[in-house]
Specification:
Blueprint lengths: L2 H37 L2 H17 L1 H10 L2 H22 L5 H30 L5 H27 L4 H19 L6 H5 L8 H7 L2 H22 L1 H9 L4 H25 L5 H17 L2 H4 L4 H33 L5 H13 L2 H14 L2 H33 L1
Helix pairs in contact: 1-2, 1-5, 1-6, 1-7, 2-5, 2-16, 2-17, 3-5, 3-16, 4-5, 4-7, 5-16, 6-12, 6-15, 9-16, 10-16, 10-17, 10-18, 11-18, 12-15, 13-15, 13-18, 17-18
Length: about 400
């Protein structure tokens, strides 16, 4: 790949990513608020997140396999084109069918198409940028993603109160069309593209199975997602909107601090090149235990609205930093250490393993919040983080003791 192609990819890839993600965030934020507002129940909100999560848990391995066999550029362009058509379809049908079912349908199909595009992008980054630039590419991607997730809720919270939700959806359709046009000018490395071979069935699975490092990371990812589902994803939006009755702008500010934390984490990772080790995970889960406890403070004490916003914003900010410290080194490791002809399948399987328990967690959390109390769901998440950290610490210390005895 020549210098001109690399520079051109930088100027096309990142703006296209910015446009697509910002439109997606606005759509997710607006539909989530809409469901909480018209139903008053967290179960409907949880079901919507489940529909958006299912493609990651179910289809990821199959999509990854397809990505390894087809040109990634075509997948990206076609995926964004159909997403644009889908949003336009929802915009037209908004006042003609049941809005709740239409949102569920849109969340599932849009998530499926967006995830297909995401996998193609992630597996194709080594064909867009040189190996020595991959960590920077992943860091910039994370910063763009997080910036959109800061701006999306802030913009959404303000605009939601004055603009019909249909126009959020129309904006999303337009953003996908613009992104698709930009992606037509991306240059993928043809040398690497020609090396693709048809592989044996689920060869990527055996690659993961034979890697002790990847199996440990997958287990940690599963526990993180279960704790995150119980302590954050369902109870926090419900508390902010239905218990504390904060404004939509306040909700947008709180949600925006998580991606802001991811931005800070991405800058730190890019600078210090933090590696993932078991000792790091032990500290991480104990840190997550403490962060999750922050979200119980407004439930226990009678605080003013502004103090609640500050406390929850701080909690989301710290949570964002931890997410960044996991995601960026992890995906860089996968991109650098996966065979070219298996990269899509390995990344797809990896995400599928980590996300497989999330739909059940979200459904259970929604039921707990509606039938009991949101603080019970948060406490469950805290216990999961603490017990995971304790188990990791116990296992690590026992291994250290055994090694010292052998010596």
């Amino acid at each position: 790949m020549n210098d001109f192609s690399i520079e051109k990819n930088k100027y096309i890839f990142f703006p296209g990513l910015l446009i697509t993600i910002l439109g997606n965030v606005i759509f997710s934020f607006a539909t989530g608020l809409f469901l909480l507002e018209i139903t008053g129940e967290s179960s409907f909100f949880a079901i919507n997140i489940i529909f958006a999560t299912l493609p990651l848990a179910i289809a990821a391995p199959f999509l990854g396999k397809i990505i390894d066999l087809l040109p990634k550029k075509k997948i990206i362009i076609v995926g964004d084109f159909f997403n644009a058509i889908l949003m336009l379809f929802i915009f037209i049908l908004w006042n003609k069918v049941n809005n709740i079912y239409l949102i569920y349908f849109g969340s599932f199909l849009s998530s499926f198409l967006s995830f297909f595009v995401f996998l193609a992008y992630d597996a194709g980054k080594p064909q867009l940028f040189p190996k020595e630039w991959l960590m920077k590419a992943n860091s910039f991607s994370s910063i763009i993603d997080s910036s959109c997730r800061v701006l999306g809720p802030l913009m959404g919270g303000i605009v939601y109160a004055i603009v019909d939700i249909r126009y959020f959806i129309l904006l999303n359709s337009i953003s996908f069309f613009i992104s698709m046009l930009l992606e037509c000018f991306l240059s993928f490395s043809e040398k690497k593209e020609k090396k693709k071979k048809h592989t044996k069935k689920w060869e990527g699975y055996y690659f993961i199975k034979n890697s002790k490092y990847l199996k440990k990371i997958i287990l940690m990812g599963i526990m993180f997602n279960i704790g995150y589902g119980f302590s954050i994803l369902i109870p926090i939006p419900y508390l902010v909107n239905n218990v504390f009755n904060l404004s939509k702008e306040s909700y947008g500010v709180i949600q925006g601090f998580s991606p802001f934390g991811i931005i800070i984490g991405a800058i730190i990772i890019n600078r210090f090149n933090k590696k993932l080790e078991i000792k790091f995970f032990i500290k991480l889960f104990y840190f997550l235990t403490g962060v999750s406890l922050i979200f119980l403070i407004p439930i226990i004490f009678n605080l003013s609205d502004i103090v609640i916003v500050i406390i929850y914003s701080l909690g989301m900010f710290l949570l964002g930093i931890t997410i960044s410290f996991i995601d960026i080194p992890l995906f860089t490791f996968l991109q650098n250490n996966s065979p070219e002809n298996l990269r899509g399948e390995i990344i797809g399987l990896f995400i599928s393993f980590i996300k497989v328990t999330l739909p059940f967690t979200l459904f259970l959390s929604g039921k707990i919040v509606d039938q009991f109390s949101p603080d019970i769901s948060i406490i469950l998440g805290i216990l999961i983080y603490f017990l995971t950290g304790s188990f990791l610490g116990y296992s690590y210390n026992n291994k250290a003791i055994l090694k010292s005895i052998k010596k």
